[in-house]
Specification:
225 residues; alpha/beta; 7-stranded parallel beta sheet; 9 helices; 7 strands; 44% helix; globular
């Protein structure tokens, strides 16, 4: 674009209610890419959708979806439209989609954090968030993460369990981990906020998704500018 994105944002914001615009301005301040979530081969639509909803509620902007054997399906009754407000990246076209995801995230400066049931993994309350961004990997409901992730992870993370059952449901695991980490990160001196450029890009996408036939309005704007 040869004009500031702020001009297009201002133009499009005139086509939603002032209340809706106020909510967008408020929510974007709490969005983060400091922590991102990666879901490897999740096959139950209910759990897949619940994780997306949890991420959106905690301000996680990006969710990465790895499809190896299982296609990632969303249950609209569970997701409640939350997938409209977050950025989904799918890895589904390579021989090893898991490796593609790991490579991409490392290039983006993320530490790879594997959730695990191993007693050698770092307990959640002992895990130390830092200025380095981290990608939290969650695996399938039955077998967990693949060896590709476990062997290449920078750190393993576990949620302590005190009952007879040996694991949490994946959507519950994601909720526990994200609540704890985001609460600590936001109270810390870590720079977790989006850049101004990122905020503009995301708000622009939100506006386009909120306005019917927004493509025609954008075309009209471009014609006049």
């Amino acid at each position: 674009m040869s004009f500031p994105k702020t001009d297009l944002i201002k133009y499009l914001s005139g086509f939603i209610t002032p209340r809706r615009w106020h909510i967008m301005e408020k929510i974007i301040r709490y969005r983060t890419r400091h922590i991102t979530v990666v879901l490897e081969d999740i096959f139950q639509p209910h759990n897949a959708s619940a994780v997306l909803r949890t991420c959106e509620c905690f301000g996680i902007q990006d969710v990465h979806i790895i499809e190896n054997k299982n296609k990632y399906n969303v249950n609209p009754d569970v997701v409640m439209g939350s997938d409209k407000w977050i950025t989904l990246t799918k890895y589904d076209s390579e021989i090893s989609n898991t490796q593609s995801a790991i490579n991409h995230l490392r290039k983006e400066g993320y530490r790879i954090i594997a959730t695990s049931l191993s007693k050698k993994a770092t307990p959640l309350d002992e895990f130390k968030p830092s200025e380095s961004r981290c990608a939290i990997f969650f695996g399938t409901e039955l077998t967990g993460l693949t060896e590709d992730v476990l062997n290449q992870a920078d750190e393993h993370l576990r949620i302590p369990i005190y009952g007879f059952t040996d694991s949490y449901n994946i959507s519950v695991s994601a909720a526990i981990v994200l609540y704890d980490l985001m609460n600590r990160v936001r109270k810390s001196e870590i720079h977790w906020e989006l850049t101004e450029t990122e905020k503009e890009e995301i708000i622009l996408q939100w506006l386009k998704k909120s306005i019917k036939r927004s493509d025609l309005l954008v075309k009209k704007f471009l014609t006049n500018h």
